Amino acid sequence: MSLGLAARLARREMRGGLRGFRLLLACLALGVAAIAAVGSVRSAIEAGLAREGAALLGGDAELDFTYRFATPEERAWMEDRATAVSEIVEFRSMAVVGDDRALTQIKGVDSAYPLIGEIVLDPTIPLDTALATDNGIPGAVMERALSDRLGIAPGDTFQLGTKTFRLTALILREPDSAASGFALGPRTLLLRDALDGSGLLAPGTLFNSKYRLDLPEGTDLAALETQAEAAFQNAGMRWTDARNGAPGVAQFVNRLSAFLILVGLSGLAVGGVGVSAAVRAYLHGKTEVIATLRALGADRATIFQTYFIQIGTLSLLGITIGLALGAFLPLLLAPIIEARLPVPASFAIYPAPLAEAAIYGTLTALAFTLWPLARSEDVRAATLFRDAWAGARHLPAARYLVVIALLAAALIAIAGWFNGSWWLTLWTLGGIAGALLILALAAVLVRLLASRAAHITRGYPRLRWALAAISGSGEGAAAVVLSLGLGLSVLAAVGQIDGNLRQAISGNLPEIAPSYFFVDIQKDQMPGYTERLETDPAVSRIDSAPMLRGVITQINGQPAAEVAGDHWVLRGDRGLTYAATPDENTVITAGEWWPEDYSGPPLISFAAEEAEEMGLALGDTLTVNILGRDITGTITSFREVDFSTAGIGFILAMNPAALAGAPHTFISTVYAEEAAEAAILRDLAGQYPNITAVRVRDAIDRVSSVLSSLAAATSYGALATLITGFIVLIGAAAAGAEARTFEAAVLKTLGAPRRQIALSFVLRAGLLGLFAGTVALFAGAMGGWAVSHYIMETDFTLIWSSAVLIVLGGVAATILAGLGFALRSLNARPAQVLRSRE
């Protein structure tokens, strides 16, 4: 028979409306909508960053130098190419009011700031007025979080280093804040010249100078970047321009959205379970129609094509609904989303994320509908009149299995290509596949366990009825365990990862982490600094080391990025130190340390783990740009560096003679009792105002707040998966309503009270939910362990609070999904039900 005939038959079948396909439409629409919405928000942020790139950056281009200002020659190069140049210096320090001290991120600006954009202050006054000097006291503005912490208001004074400043206004909006990245303290903004005499910019101080360029209209940014890299090749300069004004934000958004889309794919996988169940239930109800067509001469291909066209058309309808929701929901919620975003977003309908979501939805629909469709074509007409599926084999023909496998491979390939991270894609989708396999095996196991348990619970009729129903309803049990289990597995994994990460960074803080990091300690201040701490009985340990920062520019004479790729050590500047001898905690894993009195060519000791990742070997040479000067050294040893202790850890250490004459300061960590921390800070900050103290517990809190946002975003994605699972549960309950009605009718006829029958239904749903939640917890804990062990490299312990919520959630979801249909089954009259079965 022809494909045209199959199309006509499919069209006639669809005249019956959407009955039987509501579950299919809901599952596909919700899964596609979640992915399309995440992609649309990502595109909106990317468009906003591109549109406002110059304003976010504070100029058309920026040249960034570490621990030095531009030379007159470098400044002249910028001025020759720009219509205006603005110099900014950024560093951390302590703002002091009386005995109160708070860490702040200082930004020293010039009169040209901001070149592009506008800073908004409270009260509303011009920035030059706010920063002007009045009665010999320069003005400054700061974020409200800092003024509240210090208990000051506009008009009050505070100290930075050895100099007094007057707070004149609070910062409501800083145009280039996104370009500054993550900061450990709130912002204080003042004039660069006002820092003279404060003691905060002494030689060796840890600071960054940034030069913003306002370029002539039509300037080729790519060509200018090439010129700048050639002109500043050995100057340790980093270039950013308006094409990506906030690269850190853009990278973060891309990675988070990629992960959320992969989480959304788990929702589509759950929806696929529902789609498969809906197709199977629909075909089961078409027994007489299919049998009639087969009796009239329709071959297997015609039957398959008829229902493939029908189900395919309805699948496209579900995908279209999902695309519409994913496109328009971000537009409707744009004001709310924009209010919570730290960067601008340009909300519109973007074709690319919609196309991506449509591809995912189409591949998922094909993969999950082929299985039941393929099984149906092997059932003979005579068998269809008796039992539509009893004679069908459980697995479809081999050609269909090959097609399904190819669809799965295509889905993985497309996800990896769209996300740009094969590693993340394979791990995430592999985890989803593993969870589905575990849950599928669990669905078989629960039926076997229920069948065995039903024989030993004769004294408990309600429990026995529930167990018998579970053991006899293979499709119902599978739908509950698979749909609910996968959604709960994602939530369980997120909860365990978040809990273990928090525990890793804060749970063991008193035992392993220092109380304070002190930076910018001048060499002549080290004796007095050390004496104050060594005489304090509350201080258990002090670690100090000279501190410089440099950029690794070459490996074995070749550009570093060409040798080691995009390794994190090569992204920007890194801390480095020097030492004549290794300290007592240093563990050399390969090679040897240099002699104590060594004064020859520069030698390097490198972190072992990072060296292995970068492909470094003993004898390799590294060129490091420090304060604009290139120093090339040879690697003579590798050593262990453990950053998890929150103590001092340097990727790179050199012999002292290699860095002789380079201005630098010292960094120090102090391990002390918590009760003594305030006194230590007060004494050291009072004696050495230039020293900056970073309280480790405060830094942990700021990192934890970021982690909370990430966990919340991921949980929202997992919640969409759970909602899809709940819809599948409702579909499974609806599909089993006829069986529950017949069961209730039989039990009523045998004299069972309604209350006992209802309780058996609740027990059945609760047991399935309990089992699904327990298996999901197991799968989620395995995923959490894998991420904690292999990615975070932290210890893993089961977070019981999250675990209990997952199990209870499984029980509650199954009971709620089945209650409405159970009530209808209980209200049916036995006589009518039993007569209809004759």
From TrEMBL:
Residues in ABC3 transporter permease C-terminal domain copies: 262-375, 719-828
Residue spans crossing the bilayer: 259-283, 304-337, 357-376, 397-418, 424-446, 467-494, 716-737, 757-779, 799-823
Keywords: Cell membrane, Membrane, Transmembrane, Transmembrane helix
Pfam families xref list: FtsX (PF02687)
Membrane-protein topology: Multi-pass membrane protein
Statement: the UniProt record of this protein carries the keyword Cell membrane: yes
Stored InterPro entries: ABC3_permease_C, Membrane_comp_ABC_pdt
Cellular localization per UniProt: Cell membrane
Protein name: ABC transporter permease
